[in-house]
């Protein structure tokens, strides 16, 4: 894994955006794996503001709440529309349908989408409990797209987007961990002290289903974009012995990140 330490959300956005631009420039039909949450919002803002040409680009989203209609303001469909899809026109967009009558069939359909459009670059946030997508602690590393019951800590962390605690959905449909691991490259975004414990486990803890993000240590091409606050519980040794650490200027002068 490589780590890029940034000083602000603006720097994170610039670095993430530049990497996306590079992928879009060098591939004929790039597939971007999209995440929701606050972490990627700065990247999406730059994509909108720069009117990035994404007419050749396919997107597949990580997850969606169950029983929240696509046009409801709290759905991830709506989030993506507001952030990106209403502003720039992609070739194709895919999100799981949390309103599907038959959710098991919907999971299979989504896996077929992923087979047809293998992800070139997956954007990931990280939950405070180490979840990726909505793969909560305990999810099997071999999981494919599936329905998951959200933990109370995740519901609490996502409470800020809803009017009342009881409005926060209890279930979601999410790409599985094995589905995520198939992406060719992964960019994980983790900022602030709230993520410090998850980031420490990700970098230093055992690779365990108890902390789903730890599996990323087995992926050949992961860049973590993070800040000092999120790294505050990590030891210097783990940062410098096991990972390559970049500064923003390194990344921007070598945006391909080979
Ligand atoms: N399903 C999403 C995740 O994909 C996201 O990574 C996480 C962190 O969100 P944030 O970036 O707001 O911290 O929130 C939700 O649980």
From TrEMBL:
SUPFAM superfamilies: NagB/RpiA/CoA transferase-like. Residues 11-219 form the Glucosamine/galactosamine-6-phosphate isomerase domain. The active site is at residues 63, 129, 131, 136. Gene3D superfamilies: 3.40.50.1360. InterPro entries: Glc/Gal-6P_isomerase, Glucosamine6P_isomerase, NagB/RpiA_transferase-like. Keywords: Carbohydrate metabolism, Hydrolase. It catalyses: alpha-D-glucosamine 6-phosphate + H2O = beta-D-fructose 6-phosphate + NH4(+). Its EC number is 3.5.99.6. Pathway: Amino-sugar metabolism; N-acetylneuraminate degradation; D-fructose 6-phosphate from N-acetylneuraminate: step 5/5. One of its GO terms (molecular function) is glucosamine-6-phosphate deaminase activity. It is an enzyme of class 3 (hydrolase). It comes from the Bacteria. Belongs to the glucosamine/galactosamine-6-phosphate isomerase family. NagB subfamily. PANTHER family: GLUCOSAMINE-6-PHOSPHATE ISOMERASE (PTHR11280:SF5). Catalyzes the reversible isomerization-deamination of glucosamine 6-phosphate (GlcN6P) to form fructose 6-phosphate (Fru6P) and ammonium ion. This is Glucosamine-6-phosphate deaminase. The gene is nagB.
């Amino acid at each position: 894994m490589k780590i890029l330490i940034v000083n602000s959300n603006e720097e994170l956005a610039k670095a993430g955006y530049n990497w996306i631009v590079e992928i879009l420039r060098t591939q004929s039909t790039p597939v971007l794996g999209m995440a929701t949450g606050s972490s990627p919002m700065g990247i999406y803002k730059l994509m909108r503001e720069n009117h990035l040409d994404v007419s050749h680009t396919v997107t597949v989203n990580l997850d969606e709440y169950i029983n929240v209609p696509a046009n409801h303001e709290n759905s991830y469909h709506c989030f993506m529309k507001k952030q990106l899809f209403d502003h720039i026109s992609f070739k194709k967009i895919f999100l799981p349908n949390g309103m599907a009558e038959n959710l098991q069939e919907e999971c299979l359909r989504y896996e077929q989408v992923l087979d047809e459009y293998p992800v070139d670059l997956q954007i990931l946030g990280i939950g405070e409990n180490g979840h990726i997508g909505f793969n909560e602690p305990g999810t099997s590393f071999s999981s494919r797209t599936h329905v998951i019951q959200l933990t109370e800590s995740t519901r609490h962390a996502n409470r800020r987007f809803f009017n009342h605690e009881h409005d926060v959905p209890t279930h979601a449909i999410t790409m599985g961990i094995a589905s995520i691991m198939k992406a060719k490259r992964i960019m994980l975004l983790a900022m602030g002290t709230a993520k410090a414990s998850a980031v420490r486990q990700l970098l230093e803890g055992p690779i365990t289903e108890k902390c789903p993000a730890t599996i990323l240590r087995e992926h050949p091409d992961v860049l973590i974009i993070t800040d000092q606050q999120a790294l505050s519980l990590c030891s210097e040794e783990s940062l410098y012995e096991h990972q390559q650490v970049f500064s923003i200027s390194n990344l921007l002068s070598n945006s391909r990140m080979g």
